[in-house]
Amino acid sequence: MAGPLSLASGASSPTARPTVRPSIGDRLRGIDWFFVGASVIVAIWALWLFVLAQHDWLAGEVRNHVSTDFAAFWSAGRMVVSGEAAFVYDQARQGAVVREALGPVARAHEYLNPPPFLFVVAPLGLLGYVAAKVAWLAATLAAFLVVARRIEPHPRIVLAALAVPVVFLNVVSGQNGLLTAAIVGAALVLLPARPWLGGILIGALVIKPQLAVLFPFLLAASGNWRAFAGAALSASALMLASLLAFGPETWAGFLHSFAEAGGTVLGDGRTGWGKVQSLFGVLRHLDVAPALAWSIQAAWGVAIAILACLAWARPLPSDLKAAVAAVAIVLVQPYVFIYDEAMLAVAMAFWWRLARAEGAGRGEIALLLLAMLCLIATMMTRAHLGYAAALLVGAVVAGRLVVAWPDRTSASTSARPSS
C-alpha cells in the first residue's frame, strides 16, 4: 500500500488535483512506534526512580532492613580502605560495617565476588554510602551506554538501551550487571581489529568468572590466539595482584564463601528458585530432581557452547558472532540472576547493527518485544520469564545464523580456487 501522500498545492493550475488526505491507517504507519514505545518505557522508569527517590531510595532500603546488593559492594570497599580486606567474606564483620554507617537494623547481602573485584569497590569505600551509590550508578550506566553507542552508532541506541528493563533493575539494585555487560560488549567490539586489547578485557571478567567461561572455547575455535593470550595474561595478573594486595586470607575466605553460596543458591535454593534465571533454575522450580536437573543443564550448556564455537569457527560477520557470544553467555550457565541479563542488551545492540545493514524482519521485532515484556514480568513477579527472554533473543540470533551460515559457507567454497 502506498504511503501517505504529500502533494504540493496547485489550486491556480487548471490541471491541479484536490489534495488527498492520508487515511488513519497511513497515519498510524507513519508513526515511529519504536521511538514512541522506547520513550514511554524510559519515562516510566524515570517516574519510578522519582517515586523511589521520594522514599529515600538511595539509602532507605538498607536502613529499613531490606537487603541490597550495592550495600555489599560498598561495605567491602569500606573494609578494604580500613585495612580489613581479610574479613570482607565474614558476614558478621560486613554487617557490622553496614549497621555502623546506616543504622542498627540495616543489613546487606553477602559479598561474594572474587578478590579482584575489590579493586573496583575499594574506591567506593572512600565515600559515604549515598555518594558511593550515586557514583557507582553513574559510572556503570555511563560505561554501558558508551559501549552500546560504540557497538551501534545510531543516535537512538542510547534510548533503546535505556528502555531495556534489566538496565533499570541494575540501577535500582546497584548490581554489577551493567559493568559486566559493558566489559563484554567492549571486548566483542575490539576483538576483530584489536584482539590483544579485546582479550585483556575478557580477562577482566575474572571479577565475575562465570561470565567468562565460554570465551576460551570461542577464541580457540576462531583461532584468535592473541586475544586468548591477552585474556589469560590479564586474568592471571589481576588474580596475582589481588593476592599480593589483599593477602591469601582473602582468597581463602572467598573460596569458603563461594562453596557456601553455591549450596545456598544452586543446592537447596534458599534464595528462591524464581531468582535463578537458567534452565537449571526452571527445572528445580518444577521440582525436578537435582541430579536430573544438573544433567539436563549440562547437556544444554554443552550444546549451546558447541553451536557457538562452530559459529565462531566460520567466516561469519563479526557482529553476528558477537551477538551469538552475548546470548550464549546467558544460556550456557546455571547461575544466572535477572540483573545478569543486561548481557541480552549487548546481543540486541549487535542485532540492531546487523538489522540496519541487512533489514529487520517483523518476526524478529515481535520476538524482541516479547522478550522485553518477559523481562518486565520477571521484575514484577520473579517468574522464570527472564529465562524465556533469553531464549527469545537467542531465537532471533539463531535465525540470523541459519540465514548467514550457508551463504557464507557457499561463498567461501565458490571463492576457493579449483585444484
UniProtKB/TrEMBL annotation:
Segment forming the signal sequence: none
Recorded GO CC terms: plasma membrane
Topological category with respect to the lipid bilayer: Multi-pass membrane protein
Compositional bias segments (type: Low complexity): 1-16
Transmembrane segments: 31-51, 117-145, 157-190, 196-220, 227-247, 291-313, 320-339, 359-378, 385-405
Single GO MF annotation: hexosyltransferase activity
Region (Disordered): 1-20
Cited InterPro entries: GT87
Keyword annotations from UniProtKB, A to Z: Cell membrane, Membrane, Transferase, Transmembrane, Transmembrane helix
Subcellular location: Cell membrane
Domain of life: Bacteria
Name listed for the protein in its UniProt record: Uncharacterized protein DUF2029
Species this protein is from: Enterovirga rhinocerotis
